[in-house]
Amino acid sequence: MEEQAGRTDASAMEEQVEKNPWPDLLRLVFGGRATQVVGLGIRLKLPEAIGDGERSSTDLAAGYGVPEHTMLRLLRGLAALEVLTETGPDRFAVAPVGALLRGDRPGSLYALARMLTDPAMLTAWQNLEFSVRTGRPAFDEAFGTDFFGHLSGDPELSELYNTAMSQGTRGVAEALARSYDFGRSGTVVDVGGGDGTLIAAVLREHPGLRGVIYDSPTGASRAEETLRRAGVAGRCRIEAGDFFAGVPEGADLYLLKSVVHGWGDDRAATILQHCARSVTEHGRILMVEHVLPDTVPPGADPLPYLNDLNLLVNGSGLERTRGDFERLCGKAGLTLGEVAPLSPTDFCRIEARPGITWALNEEDGQVGVPVRDDAG
């Protein structure tokens, strides 16, 4: 018995050692430093500089005009973060994660990573407490304008943002095009469709479908090129406009990918109300968004929750639960339908149908009160 008790005690001690939270805490508090290291590697384009072979700190330091010993420390930091691999003493190659940061490769996520680690983005995050205490964007407080206003005054960052949005949409576009029944629709409007990455994938997969890209002139500035490359330019037109003022009318499906999460309930409902008023009688509204569980489960992926805080810091949006989407749809005159995971991504597709016909206030052009029920 004593021997068995001794083994049990030993097992308990081993388990306690294995669950020591100290290393996890250190990883959390050093997370911001890791972002700075990776961000610098991205801005210097180190993965591209190393290329397909191996480079030493001596070689790289000479090219960048920095001391060899500081370059070596940076390279080893990137290796410890698995962006690079140190194959031998002071010999570095690009790891699989680092390969995604090569802007000279197909499938690159360079622009997305570069934008998310841009000093402007990180400056706003330093004021997270301001946003938590006030509910207002820390970005506006730091820069004296909102995020998109800042982009309009920085063409390089604006271009980076547009490319980043395209890169972040590619995987979602392919998954959505193959998993959703677009055959019920004749025309789909991609609201806030940007450069057309999403609608191009959908039209490529469904030859009988026609599309409309609806975005601001700046947002849709590269859409024509995307459609042409995808071979679908003849089945898709581009319309410039403001989705707070209205959307093109008469489509069977209104597609909104990562649009609704960018706005609080009032403004998000306005966008959805315009879609509800414009869709055909038996049409649908399809949102592609993260859907948070009602409570944070053990071992949850922190990314959607960090993105939720990013929306707080840099704008006026938020990530939502299914219940939040149901209430938002109700506010917009829609009935929430299927909410399904969009594998293999971490997004969900959220379908809604018109539940109310909305009257247009002729004086100000805004969507007004519901005038009748509509089974859709």
TrEMBL record:
Keywords of the record: Methyltransferase, S-adenosyl-L-methionine, Transferase
Domain of life: Bacteria
Gene3D superfamilies listed in its UniProt record: 1.10.287.1350, Vaccinia Virus protein VP39, Winged helix-like DNA-binding domain superfamily/Winged helix DNA-binding domain
Family annotation (CDD domains): AdoMet_MTases
Keyword Signal: no
InterPro entries tied to this protein: COMT-like, COMT_C, SAM-dependent_MTases_sf, WH-like_DNA-bd_sf, WH_DNA-bd_sf
Species annotation: Streptosporangium brasiliense
Residues of the O-methyltransferase C-terminal domain: 125-334
Keyword Methyltransferase annotated: yes
Protein name per Swiss-Prot or TrEMBL: O-methyltransferase C-terminal domain-containing protein
